[in-house]
């Protein structure tokens, strides 16, 4: 089965400056991939490049086998987009917004859209401008699912929402994911990704740090904690290091060699990886 999304050495230029370069990642059918990185790391530029809002300056982006560089309209019809902006917020009811925007997608179903609105508890009679942020996100998801996309793109949609709704939102996404589509979800809030994501790509300052499954992340990176003497001994193997109140800790990449010190070793969280690898 071919990948839903395949990015091969892709980059984007604005003016004379590369905002993103040499990105390589693959989203398989049924995969939920998170994209992490601090603000300004390149997450939004990556998403704009995938959906055709930023020109691909090098490499290629393929969606279900079609090239964004050569068949952009075919690619765009395969995407469902949920961004943290007011792109859809015209003076329309939810129901009429579905009719108007759905005309751009050949596989769109108004009946499916209204069914998803009922399922997500979005009032189809409500004006888009009067929807809460949470309901506006659910409206976007209902619309995206109604035109049966291969890829659902989400660029930090949960920023500014309370933790309870974020958990409900992630459960909702997990429920709609199946082997006909994939999800690419950019965020700097990592706790939910650790529970739901199958894979993660990290960006830093316009460059890709890694693109790994969650199992590969767990296997390849470790947090080590110990005394200053122990950490001094390990310093050449550490990718980063910091002093805590009662001990020191650092990040190392598993190389199959013994540590030779009696230090504590544990799995890093995604926030740990962002802290240690962002400046590398």
Outline the secondary-structure elements:
Elements: E1 5-14, E2 17-27, E3 32-36, H1 43-50, E4 58-63, E5 66-67, H2 72-76, E6 79-83, H3 94-102, H4 110-119, H5 133-146, E7 151-155, H6 163-176, E8 182-186, H7 191-196, E9 199-204, E10 207-213, H8 214-220, E11 221-226, H9 228-234, E12 238-243, E13 248-253, E14 264-266, H10 270-277
Parallel strand pairs: 3-8, 3-9, 6-7, 7-8
Antiparallel strand pairs: 1-2, 1-4, 4-5, 9-10, 11-13, 11-14, 12-13
Helix pairs in contact: 4-5
What features would you highlight for this structure?
10 helices, alpha/beta, six-stranded mixed beta sheet, 280 residues
Q: How would you explain this protein's 3D organization?
A:
- With 280 residues, the chain is α/β, with parallel strands linked by helices.
- Among the domains are: 59 residues; 61 residues.
- The chain is built from ten helices and 14 strands.
- The strands form three sheets. A six-stranded mixed sheet has the order 6-7-8-3-9-10, sandwiched between helices.
- Helix 4 packs antiparallel against helix 5.
- The protein is globular, with a radius of gyration of 21 Å.
- The mean pLDDT is 90.
């Amino acid at each position: 089965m071919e990948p839903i999304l395949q990015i091969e050495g892709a980059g984007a230029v604005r003016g004379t400056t590369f905002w993103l370069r040499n990105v390589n990642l693959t989203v398989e059918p049924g995969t939920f991939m998170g994209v992490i990185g601090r603000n300004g790391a390149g997450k939004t530029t990556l998403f704009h490049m995938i959906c055709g809002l930023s020109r691909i300056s090098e490499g290629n982006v393929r969606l279900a086998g079609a090239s964004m560089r050569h068949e952009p309209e075919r690619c765009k019809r395969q995407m469902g987009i949920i961004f943290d902006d007011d792109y859809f917020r015209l003076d329309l009811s939810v129901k009429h917004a579905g009719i108007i925007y759905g005309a751009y997608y050949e596989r769109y179903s108004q009946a499916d859209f209204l069914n998803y609105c009922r399922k997500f508890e979005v009032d189809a009679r409500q004006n888009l401008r009067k929807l809460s942020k949470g309901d506006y996100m659910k409206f976007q998801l209902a619309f995206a699912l109604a035109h049966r996309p291969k890829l659902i793109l989400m660029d930090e949609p949960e920023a500014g929402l309370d933790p309870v709704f974020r958990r409900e939102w992630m459960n909702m996404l997990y429920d709609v994911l199946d082997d006909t589509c994939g999800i690419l979800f950019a965020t700097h809030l990592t706790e939910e990704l650790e529970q739901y994501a199958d894979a993660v790509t990290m960006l830093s300052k316009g460059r890709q740090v890694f693109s790994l499954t969650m199992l590969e992340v767990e296997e390849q990176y470790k947090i080590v904690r110990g005394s200053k003497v122990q950490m001094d001994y390990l310093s050449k193997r550490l990718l980063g290091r910091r002093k805590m109140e009662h001990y020191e800790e650092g990040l190392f990449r598993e190389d199959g060699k013994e540590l030779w010190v009696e230090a504590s070793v544990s799995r890093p969280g995604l926030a740990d990886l962002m802290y240690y690898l962002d400046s590398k």
